[in-house]
Amino acid sequence: MIRLGIDATSVAPEGKGIARVQRGTVRALAKLGRFELVVYARRPEELPEVRARRVTWRPTLAWEQLGLARAAREVDVLLTWTERLPLFGSGRFVVWMFEPPTHRIEQNRQVGARAWQRGSDAVTSLLWRRSLSRAAVVLTGSQATADAVRDVTPARPLYPGLDERFSPGTAASGGSVLHIGSNDPRDDTTTALAAARAAGERLVVVGGYAGPAEGAELAGRVTDDELVDHYRRADAFLDTSLYEGFGFQVLEAMACGTPVVASDTTSIPELVGDAALLCPPGDVDAFAAALRRLRTEAELADDLRRRGLARAAEFTWERTAEQLADAVEEAARA
């Protein structure tokens, strides 16, 4: 049996994004039972399915360059989400990346990231192309990301599964449109606010957005259970993202039976298929028109609910685990 190491150091209470992916991966692979798992985590108590080893390496770069190198000697294959693989030592690595680091670095520059983040980005710029050449297999969260790194490394998409909590419910409609926003420019929350005003819709914004919000309700950060309730109560979900390596939010909304209006960019079109109304990024008029259609065309809204539920149901952790296991076995043979 292959001894598989999993770098689950991002898992944290109520963690989003990669933290959620790592948690789902550990659970799904443990259930699959095809490997002997050795899980490395900063919070082993968050992964009761396995006896994870506690990681205390600080800073993150030390874990990536020294800790991962040591861990790779203990296992046959090591699965990680970092693009900064150790430059020295042996080992077979599977890397699962969700966006090219160049985009993240540019975003950090635009928002005036702190000095430590700028330093980390400088290291990433120096390392990531060279370190990815050490990977036996590179997976991406979407075809859009695979295309974005094509000139650096061969990669193929592997979609993560959705948490089963994201499902239809019986909550009464809140008569509002939901948006998950922040002050990150790529969420483009200002466009969501403007589109909702133009469409005459009451917008509920969850997340870390803290800017002007005339006519909108700022609900702040919420737990996953609270987020599920927000999805179920919304008459539509509005995603105005300018960039998504993998658009969890549109799939979560569809899984809860909420019609989606979203940006026609990066990974979003491939994820939603024909189950959402797509608009050019930043086009307030187009987003507002789409929201009006959902409000006035009941048959369209019902059709998008049906299509969305069917599309979201394809993103299961069981399927992801099988495909990931095949990639691990491929790496073991490399």
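(the above was protein one; protein two follows)
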Amino acid sequence: MKIAIVGAGGVGGFYGAKLLKAGLDVTFVARGAHFQAMRRNGLTIESENGGVNLALPAVTVTDDPLTIQSPDLIIIAVKLWDLAPLVRALKKIATPKTGILSLQNGVIKDDILKEAFGTQAVIGGVGYVATHIGRPGVITQVGALQKIKLGEYDGSRSARVETLVDAFASTGVEASNSEDIRRVLWEKYVFLVGLSALTSVTRLPIGPIRENAHSRSLLESVIQEAVAVGRALGVGLPEDYAQQCMGLVDQLPFTMSSSMFHDLDRGNRLELPWLSGGVVSLAEKAGIRAPVNAFIADALAPYITGRAAAA
């Protein structure tokens, strides 16, 4: 299987390195100093204390996805705001048999990909790993969790998904083939929407948020709305899934925040239109309202395009 990893940051770099270690033909697409370091020294995954988890001294990497010819699978791991222009480029290298797998946040991204490449091309996938670029050429992994769930949207068991599951499992990743990948995506989505919304609005990690009765109630309301939207769209989420999410919130490290929190803190663009903003747009599609998520989206709207725009 010839695989293109488009976006070799924390998520793409980690899962791409695992597939390469498993013996698959992997080409990374990276940018800037990270690209230069990968071209010179390969790619390394380190633990947060500096220990080396995986070292790949030589990798195939490019800064131009158009140089990749006829991949069997394209794995997309860029920020959501880069998806629309990226799709236009990837359509030039994809064949009718190329599979498309997004490991990005949210659920709207797969709708965009299905429209661009066709429903049958798109594989659903959810990654569970805490990673970031520690320095150019090095992915830092926080904690031991390394998990991925993949699946065809029609619930079938395909050779391409089985190949990926087996490859990941051979490198220590907890990998599985889901018969209801849409539900799995929504399970992560509603949790991520709540975590992103409250940590960003309050500029606080999850600990103080969950310990304050008022902010905790707001967090649960954000998640409840997202669950209601999913159920209205026919997703098989349990009625009490918001309460289940709050149980997970109580198990998180006190200092845990979210990638949107970090983007806000650094003055970067925000994935807000696809998170709380996405809940609002999907609620409109379902014919219901999501006023709490609308408030979050409106409150953070000045920061969507980054610090310069907010200033």
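Reviewer note on protein two: The chain has a mean pLDDT of 95.
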